Structures are given as C-alpha cells and as structure tokens.
Amino acid sequence: MNSKTILSCAVTGNITSPQQNPNQPVTPIEIATAVIDAHKAGAAIAHIHVRDLQTQQGSMDINLYREVVDRIKDSGSDVIINLTTGEGGRFVPGTDEPKIAGPGTTLCRPELRVAHVKDLKPEICTLDFNTMVSGDRTVINTPVNLKIMADIINAAGTKPEIEIFDSGDLNMAKDFIAKGHLQTPAMFQLVLGVPWGAAANYQTLAYLKSQLPADCVWAAFGIGRASFPMLALSYLMGGHVRVGMEDTVYIARGELVKTNAQLVEKAVGIVESLGGTIATPTEARAILGLAD
C-alpha cells in the first residue's frame, strides 16, 4: 500500500454529456468551480478538458484552457492541474469514402494537440498511448506523433501522465522510456472499462500492474458502473485513484451525481474505510517528483 493515496478528479471530458446529466460542467467558470470544489473535498489533482460553448463537445481552444487555469489559480487553490492532450486524435471514416474524414473527425497535427501545454505549462498533462476503436470512430496515436508531443511536453517542464487503455499501449510506452523519450520515474494511468479496451476486472488490472516499470507511480480507474469498484481495487493493489464526471454521471445506481465534489467525497470515504489516507497536493507533488 502507498503511505498516502493520490486522488485525481476528472471533472468533465468529451464523451459524457449534459444530456446524460445536466450537472455536467461545460463553461470555464463551471469547470473551474468544479475543480476548486473537488479539491476542497479531497482531490489533489484535477484532470481538465474544456468544451465548446455552443456544441458542448470537447474543445482545443487555448483561450478556454487559459480561462479555466487562471480562475483556479486566482482562487488560491493549490490543486495540481492536469490538462488533457487527448483532443485532436479522433478519425471517423467517411461513409462513401472511408479514407476521407467524415463528420466528427478531430485528427490534427500533434503540435496543435499540445499547444496549450506549451503555453500554459501545467504541472501535469495526459499523453494517450492508445490507438483503438471507440464507438463509431478510431482514436489514433502513432509513435511518430507521440514522440513529437512528448518532446514538447518535456520542453514545457510538464510531467506526462501516460494513459494506458490496453497492454499494447503499455508496451509502446515502455519502449519510449527505454529510448529516453519519457523521463523516469514515469506516471501511469490505467484506463479500465472502455469498450474494446482493457476490461474493468481484477485479472486485467493485475496483468497490467505486473507489466509496469518497477519505479513508476501508477493509478487506475473504471468507466461508468466500474468507477467505484475499480477505485477500491486500485487502492487495494497499491495504486492511486481517480473519479469524476468524465468517467461516470452517477453517484449510485440510478442516481445522477450532483457535483464532482460529491464523487470525491464518496471516493475519500472508500479509501479511508479501507485504511488509506488521502494525499494533499503538497504530498502528491512529493510522491510524483514535481517541483514545488
């Protein structure tokens, strides 16, 4: 077990929607407020997407990121900011000609996917190693593009949180570490329960954990109904944990969650009931080797 457990809160994503839960944060002030409240409830890290104000879909608008980050910092919160770089990786084949991008495609140059990281220099940002089918689209993260993104992230002084959706992703990430593209000790996030990715069960998590570099810091989380079971399992297996309205829109079976802070409070209760202690942002920075 870890002496202290880092709890991350993913306050809004690009898949869960206000149509599923009207409490989903969308605007910069809603997202920033969700982060601040989640931190007060016990989250040391806030994982942040931003959303287009008209479509409410995931956005790469650097001005939206800047407003969210500024609002959090202006509040005096010392929460660790973790910005996504997952936007810009989706390809939807055209109906008449599959090699031509259809509606919903966001695939773009890798430099654009990390432009906000280069400018805002958060303490952490995600780096997704998955290439996989996701719904009616394909997420594409090639080694060439990931190397470009990793170089820009490293130059910004930001620690990449390496997102693993299946075993092949982990093999590629370990190859990046061996080649010096990623610094050690690395930070891994194991994503469980995404359809056609790693299954949300003990056997899958145990296998992925067994393949991690010995000196890494790792966490795992589950999607949807697997959110709280995987949180408990990750803690019991020695990992850190994550919750948030990016991952689930429910606080209990059939009950929509009201706020991200409500999810964090439940997560804190689970970890503490199992004998754990939640890390503060200062303690999390020490665990992750982040500069003060």
CATH second-level architecture: Alpha-Beta Barrel
Strand order of the largest sheet: 1-2-5-7-10-11-12-13
End-to-end C-alpha gap: 25 Å
Any idea what the CATH superfamily is called?
Answer: Aldolase class I
SS strand fraction: 15-25%
Reported for the largest beta sheet, the result is:
8 strands, parallel, barrel
Give the total of beta strands. Answer: 15
**Overall average residue pLDDT:** 96
Oligomer: single chain
Task: Provide the CATH topology.
Answer: TIM Barrel
CA radius of gyration is 18 Å
Q: What is the helix tally? A: 10
Order of helices and strands: EHEEEHEEHHEEEHEHEHEHEEEHH
Uncertain stretches of 5 or more adjacent residues: none
State the CATH class.
Alpha Beta
SSE layout:
Blueprint: E1 7-12, H1 28-41, E2 45-48, E3 50-51, E4 58-59, H2 62-74, E5 80-83, E6 90-91, H3 110-113, H4 115-120, E7 124-128, E8 132-134, E9 137-139, H5 143-155, E10 159-164, H6 167-178, E11 187-192, H7 202-211, E12 217-222, H8 227-236, E13 240-243, E14 250-252, E15 255-256, H9 260-273, H10 281-288
Parallel strand pairs: 1-2, 1-13, 2-5, 5-7, 7-10, 10-11, 11-12, 12-13
Antiparallel strand pairs: 3-4, 6-9, 8-9, 14-15
Helix pairs in contact: 1-2, 1-9
